[in-house]
Design brief:
Elements (H helix, E strand, L loop, with lengths): L2 E2 L6 H13 L8 H22 L4 E2 H41 L3 H8 L10 H11 L8 E7 L6 H9 L2 H6 L2 E8 L4 H12 L10 H11 L5 E8 L5 H12 L6 E7 L2 H7 L5 E2 L5 H13 L8 H13 L8
Parallel strand pairs: 3-6, 3-7, 4-5, 5-6
Antiparallel strand pairs: 1-2
Helix pairs in contact: 1-2, 5-6, 8-9, 9-10, 12-13
Organism: Aegilops tauschii subsp. strangulata (Goatgrass)
GO molecular function, one term: ADP binding
Protein name: NB-ARC domain-containing protein
């Protein structure tokens, strides 16, 4: 391979001299045409000076090989980044599909307790259970709305009630359905059937037919239904049609708990005053915050951490989501 070897000398000085000349402001006696010619001459002389005095040997083949290695590595990095983005897109799509999923398995998992420890909400839980366990049989169905902002603990409270041993023994069927923004009567009715029947009804899309089948399965049965995260301000007609199978030929004492962020939904569906979930009391929130921050070490109460933690917790205004 051909090598360009340069002698030793003041190559750096040449570069500095070139830089100095280029930055020099033209004086009053300088003539523009001559300045341009001088600058070109200086550029040529400086370039020759740098080439003549640089002492580092350059191997063209080695340099070419090195460039190829860098290009190859950049291509590898590009591939790795592409894979990361593909995984991210896949995860996002999976998450979206999961949220849109309407299988009963998803909602069975939703009804499962994330943690048996619920901080606060003692009074709210007591009120809900009292209504659910009432021996008053004058109503075939009770609809109790649970209202609160996002993350305040509506679903966690409802999970705790849903899994109470007394509740399990009182109701022949317990149904948990995540509704979200799309209040689809056909989907909801089909999912109700998935809880009360061993048969699958995915191929049936007729709302009336699904209602007839559901009516047969809940006949003379007491049913608890959780409609979690209801958004849609559906009209009375749609709502009454959805509940029709539980109003006739079924046992009295059916209960529907509706969790929602919207007071308008609560007023429309409720047969009783809603349970309003607000911020946690200071002591309850501190226990939750400490558990989230310290985990298994929460019982150790390290003094300095508790002092700082109390200050932080006080600024979060009892919002469980902030913990």
């Amino acid at each position: 391979p051909t090598e360009i070897k340069c002698g030793t000398g003041n190559g750096t000085a040449g570069m500095l001299n070139h830089n100095k000349i280029c930055k020099k402001k033209p004086g009053l006696d300088d003539q523009p045409p001559n300045s341009s010619r001088k600058r070109r001459r200086v550029d040529e002389e400086s370039a020759q000076n740098i080439a003549a005095n640089t002492s580092t040997p350059w191997n063209k083949a080695e340099l070419s090989n090195r460039i190829q290695q860098i290009i190859s590595r950049l291509q590898d990095i590009r591939g790795e980044v592409s894979e990361v983005f593909k995984l991210h897109e896949s995860d996002s799509a999976s998450s979206l599909d999961h949220n849109r999923s309407t299988t009963s398995d998803q909602h069975l998992r939703t009804s499962s307790l994330i943690s048996r420890q619920l901080y606060g909400r003692v009074a709210e839980k007591k009120s809900i259970l009292k209504l659910m366990m009432s021996d008053d049989t004058s109503n075939s169905i009770i609809v109790l709305p649970i209202v609160g902002v996002a993350g305040v603990g509506k679903t966690a409270l409802t999970q705790l009630v849903y899994n109470e041993p007394n509740v399990e023994s009182r109701f022949q069927h317990r149904v948990w359905i995540w509704v979200s923004r799309n209040f689809d009567e056909v989907r909801i009715t089909r999912e109700m059937l998935n809880f009360v029947s061993r048969e699958k009804h995915e191929e049936i899309n007729c709302f009336v037919k699904l209602q007839e089948i559901l009516k047969i399965h809940v006949k003379s049965k007491r049913v608890l239904i959780i409609l979690d995260d209801v958004w849609d301000d559906m009209n009375d007609c749609r709502w009454n049609q959805l509940l029709a199978p539980f109003k006739f030929n079924s046992a009295n004492g059916n209960v529907i708990l509706v969790t929602t962020r919207k007071l308008s939904v609560a007023k429309m569906v409720g047969t009783t005053e809603p349970i309003k979930i607000g911020a946690l009391e200071e002591d309850d929130f501190w226990l939750l915050f400490k558990s989230c921050a310290l985990g298994d070490r929460a019982s150790e109460n390290p003094g300095n951490l508790c002092t700082i933690g109390r200050q932080i917790a006080g600024k979060l205004k009892g919002n469980p989501l902030a913990a």
